[in-house]
Amino acid sequence: MSNNNEINKNVSKKESPLKKLSFLNNQIVYLIIVIIFICVIASLLNPKFFTFKNFLNIMQQISILGILTMCMSLLMISGGLDISIGNMTGLLAIIFARLVLTGKGIVLGVTVAFVLGTILGFINGFIIAKSKVTPLIITLGMDYVFLGFALIVGGGRPHAITGQFEFLGQYRIGGVVPVSIILFFIIFLFAFSLRKYTKYGRRLNAIGGNPQAAFLSGINVDWHIISIYTLSGFIVGFTSLILISRLGMVQADVGSNFALQALAASIIGGITFEGGRGSIVGAFFGVLLLGILNNSLNIIGVSSFVQTIVLGAIIVAATVISNIGKMRRQ
Amino acid sequence: MENKIFEANKILETRNITKEFPGVKALVNFNFDLYKGEVHALIGENGAGKSTFIKILSGAFAPNRGEIVLGNEKYHYFTPNTARRLGIQTVYQEDILVPPITAAENIFLGVEEISEKKFFIGYMQIFKKAEELAKNIGINIRVDEIYEKLSPSDQQFVKILKALAQRPKILILDEPTQAFNKNDIGLVIEMVKRISKEGVGVIYIAHDLDEIVEVADRITVLRDGKKIKTHDRKVESFKTDVLANEMIGRPVDLFYKKKENPIGDYVFEVRNLKLKPNHKPINFKVKEGEILGVAGLKGAGRSEIARAIFGALKKHEGMIFYKGKNITPTNPIQAVKSGMALLTENKQIDGLFMGMPVCQNITMVGLDKIGKLFINLTKEKKLSAEYVKRLNIKTPSLDKEVKFLSGGNQQKVVIAKWLFKGVNILIVDEPTHGIDVNAKTEVYELFTELATSGKSIIMISSEMPELISLSDRVIVINNFEITKELAKDEISEANILSGFIGRK
Q1: Longest dimension (CA), chain B
Q2: What is the pLDDT of residues A188-201, one digit of tens each?
Q3: Could you tell me if the ipTM is greater than 0.90?
Q4: How many Å apart are CA B134 and CA B143, to the nearest integer?
Q5: pTM of this prediction?
Q6: SS3 assignment, position A279
Q7: Longest C-alpha distance within chain A, in Å?
Q8: How many CA atoms lie within 13 A of B317 on its CB side?
Q9: A 193-222 residues with CB below 8 A of B?
Q10: Which of A265, B48, B262, B318 meets the CB 3.0–4.6 Å disulfide criterion with A287?
């Protein structure tokens, strides 16, 4: 009896108001501190940094990468990953551009982007679930396949559709807030709720944490893996539309850097390769950090070559720091 | 000076070691000493502080207070490197060596002076030295075999040899006999005695009290992080009931006395199950509210049969019926749907989501109960708290990750997971493997309660007391076939053992 009381005491002790903020785990706190630090430095060096206009600017710049990061994070939480999402975005965008340019119409273009994105995601998921080969290898291969197709479809030339499809990427609501930011937030909230509040998300998490235990718990592991890659493909289709709408013109390798950047943002946000860990909120701040860093370096006039080095160093530092935190917890 | 009273043969002393984790006092003012050439056993329930203590000695944890005296030096904490340098070697149960290289290479990994060659590996040399090392402590293994091809018990020997290759002064063995059959535990005990005769001080941790009594020169009992008593063979003869009593803090009966559970009609049937074409068909039935014991040696096919029944392993042929209805599952999804549960032997590997909180583990199979599409998180907390209370799971909070719980409590989380879903047939594989006496009794009580409430339990076990005291009927498996079926009044150790070898 005394044991029971003790547990109740222990269980209730934790129900403090702070618990509501439990999603702000250590990694996210670090991230916010780093982001504030960068903001302060950048503002001191150039007062233009800390303005509402620049803030919107940053958010618009990261919206495409942000949406892809949400895909990557969901995949990583379920123990997978998809290196091909960048070139998949490029392939879908270039197909869209060709359809529009050859007069097949925007409606068909949009439909094809969504349907084909879903199918490509399904193919990735199906191969990974059924072959049990590590997703890194499969999607690396598929990445080349997609890039190759994009080169064939686009003939290696840039394709401009300037002025024909601008709403998703360039329209500003009330002349102020870009639509793409709203879309990013919608996808973020979707991914967040999916992970945290749905049975589907919980099962993905379980599969990422321990696939064998998930299998023996009666979870349909293959179905979940295939469906999350498929969902990711669907969102990539959507992203390709925002991308081409924003740029007005595409070439085959337009998305080549996205996959690794999305991977980096997820890792910076505390999501690990082992799966089953990390939060969507963390990934959101990961993207935000990349965006703010990029923008502030631009504003204070650091060359893009140096920026590349800084990006790499940040990835290494973030993973090392989170690993130190993990070791300390143990 | 304090050091002057440090006796010549005393190689280690800890004074007032205290280690606290958030919400838990793992060790409180713990005093411990170790002499040259003795085996000092450390016993206690899961969570009593044994693991914390050896982790402090091996440098994985730093204590909050207290000091460690070793040689003539005082330390407040060790790093893994100091521990190693000072001659402390720890063999953990969960240690993993390098699987695809030979046993001998594993043994001498990191011991540079073994080979005269500077850069290359002198295979012949290390094979010879490894063999010598093994012979010295009276064990016989193939040191030139690839590590992962060795049996679990031989792998355990290799781990111990690897520690010995570092010529330790202090050897810490954490449950060294877990990988062994009851019959082979004697080999380990022999070996440990030889090692201590060579002058090494051995700290020995195990759950089996008979084993402890046989191997130890002194026994220290830990409970809730505090030292209860140290027994010395020179002064008294060890008594298992006294030790168990001290571990738990109340009198305990090692043989569980089960309350009668009412048994109904046959509800569950396995018909003509064959895993491979050349196996004999397996047929058995289980009644409502019955606990069917499944005996047999490790490797007799018990776990495989359980997995095949559950649809997790491919069967050649065979059908499963529940209340006359064919429910033969081809995968665990179907098995779970038709009310079956499989509690595997290695819960940490395939039963639990170690990185997920207690409450999420409990609700994992029965998610349908707390939401259609979205999870009702409040309901999840509320319901899982009920199971934590009902099963007496000791956890600081519902949000604690399961990996921080002790083995016994982890097992209770696995059981809670299936109870939450609601099941009719529980297949449990070695349900008390690696958990302490007190937690065992609680698991037995739980099973009795479940049987009484009309559930059927198929219990695979290697523990005789468990099979005898808990089962309403026992079947014995040998080489993928049933060699014996024993009714309640026929269940005895001798009858079960005779089934281990013979055929029907």
Answers
A1: 80
A2: 999 999 999 999 99
A3: no
A4: 9
A5: 0.76
A6: coil
A7: 78
A8: 7
A9: 193, 197-200, 202-203, 205-206, 209-210, 212-220
A10: A265
